Amino acid sequence: MKLQFYNSVTSEKEEFQPISNKEVSVYGCGPTVYNSPHIGNFRTFIFYDLLNRVLVQNGYTVKNVINITDIDDKIIDRVNNEDIAFNDLIQKYERIFLEQSDFLSILPSTFNPRASEYVSEMIDFIKSLMDKGMAYHVNGNIFFDTKEYSKYGKFVNIDDDSLSREDNELGKKHSNDFALWKAWKESDGEITWTSDWGNGRPAWHTECAVLGTQLLGESIDIHCGGIDLKFPHHENESAQVEALLGNQFANYWLHSEHLIFDREKMSKSLGNTLTISDLLKKYSSESLRLFLLSSHYRSKVSFSDKKLDDSSKMVDKIDRFVNNFDLATIDVQGIKYSSSHLAFLDALNDDLNTPEALGIFFDFINKINKNIDNESMTEDLKAESKIFINLFNSIFSIINTSLSNKDSIPKDIQDLASLREEMRNKSDWNEADKLRGKIENLGWLIEDTKDGQKLIQKK
Q1: Residues 5, 10, 15, 16: is their CA dihedral positive or negative?
Q2: pTM, to two decimals
Q3: For residues 312 and 283, is the Cβ–Cβ distance under 8 A?
Q4: Could you tell me if 140 and 198 are in contact, meaning their C-beta atoms sit under 8 angstroms apart?
Q5: pLDDT at residue 228 above 60?
Q6: pLDDT tens string 41-73
Q7: Contact assessment for residue 223 and residue 252, using Cβ atoms and an 8 Å cutoff
Q8: Which of 24, 68, 198, 459 could form a disulfide with 60 if both were Cys (CB 3.0 to 4.6 A apart)?
Q9: Residue 162 has pLDDT above 70, yes or no
Q10: Which of 179, 177, 176, 247 is nearest to 212 (CA)?
Q11: φ and ψ at 131, to 5 degrees?
Q12: CATH 1.20.120.640: which residues of the chain?
């Protein structure tokens, strides 16, 4: 099956036709670094990783961006309400995001740009929109004039255009007009930049619009994000770029659904979140990753301990299956993809259908396990198994190929890890954090699990 995606703009599955024959450009909206990302956030980030891996499996080179939003009202509120410096806050949570992405086997992005690194480009972008008559200046703020862009509303139907009291106070012409630049307020403190309109900062929608065009070009293949970003964020992001440049910003828009917790979406604003650090106390990173990939990305999925327990059992079953083979000694030369391999790839090419792909893989495991039990394994079946294990892991990446043998971990790393565990047992958290930093600087990550510390060599 040829690769196809569900395009949120057209509400249809469409065959993927890249702009370039070989390289695919992908933009995914990244974290706002004011707090630790929760497992609901990581459902979206795992979806990005799945998309990239399937594109690579189809022979493409992927050039992708996951941005770091480090200019935002939530960050300013956190700085004002707590005794923490702006740079310390954003650096801490950016590090946590990247570290936990590594734990969950999310491949590194080509670019992880911070919004604050591109403010001058954002100012130039806004000036260009004003020069075209697409934006207007009110009291130090710059707004995009949605009535000047005839295609506004392509993501959702927009009917109501009545101005609220807040709209009137801001000086907006129309209710759907949105900020490109926010004038400095006293509560912003030192988080400000100089522009022709006075001190202030770029607004969120403009940040992503500029980062995408600066790093990937005026037209990109795929733009993705969580479903809650479809409107207004992606609507407003797309409107700016297309109004200024006159071309389609992204050819395919893909959106992942919510993770549901206690009948509500998991959200920091609702206070019902679970961080990766919380969950790693009970579950392995492989179990978390498999849980997030077990449902189709466009389906809502309810969080529960039972589902994570089931994922842990599936990981154990896969590990037991893999341990039947000495993969290094199995020769696969001349072995072609079987019908099971092809069905697995077809499922993934059908809008990233991971539930179907998983079902095909487990059917294969059950078939081979019967051959093993009956002592009827052949060299061809061993080769077919090795191919499928490698194929499966290239997408799902839950078969632990890191150095699990303690003897293979350098002694200095083991000693530092043992000392860190001792500090944790004494509740000396500052010293434990310093030791974690030393270990990471030497090329290793520490995952705190229910079974104790797990050392993972950095990818």
Answers
A1: negative
A2: 0.87
A3: yes
A4: yes
A5: yes
A6: 999 999 999 999 999 999 999 999 999 999 999
A7: yes
A8: 24
A9: no
A10: 247
A11: -60, -30
A12: 272-396
Selected residue with higher pLDDT from 434 and 351: 351
Query: Beta strands 178-183 and 141-144: pairing type?
Result: antiparallel
Going by their DSSP bridges, the two strands 178-183 and 61-66 should be labelled as unpaired
pLDDT computed for residue 459 by the predictor: 53
DSSP state, residue 10: T
Ranges of beta strands (E only) in 44-188 are 61-66, 135-138, 141-144, 178-183
The HSE-up count of residue 207 (CA atoms within 13 Å, CB side) is 24
From the list 359, 227, 254, the residue with the least C-alpha distance to 12 is: 254
Q: Where in the chain is the domain with CATH 3.40.50.620?
A: 4-256
Residue 345's identity, in one-letter code, is: L
**What is the C-alpha separation between 104 and 39, in angstroms, rounded?**
11
Q: Are 409 and 419 in contact (CB under 8 A)?
A: no
Q: What confidence score (pLDDT) does residue 403 get? A: 38
For the residues of 316-376, what is the DSSP string, one character each?
Answer: HHHHHHHTT--GGG---TTPPP-HHHHHHHHHHHBT--HHHHHHHHHHHHHHHHHHHHTT-
Q: For residues 137 and 197, what is the distance between their CA atoms, to the nearest angstrom?
A: 8
Q: Would you tell me which CATH number, out of the four given (2.60.40.1120, 3.40.50.620, 3.40.228.10, 3.40.50.1820), belongs to the domain 4-256?
A: 3.40.50.620
By CB atoms closer than 10 A (0-12, 13-18, 19+), residue 112 is middle
Q: Is 244 exposed, middle or buried (0-12, 13-18, 19+ CB in 10 A)?
A: buried
Detail the DSSP E strand segments found in 20-150: 23-28, 61-66, 135-138, 141-144
| Ramachandran assignment for 91, one of left (phi > 0), alpha (psi -120 to 50 degrees), beta (any other) | alpha
CA distance 130 to 244: 9
Q: Of residues 117 and 21, which shows the higher confidence score?
A: 117
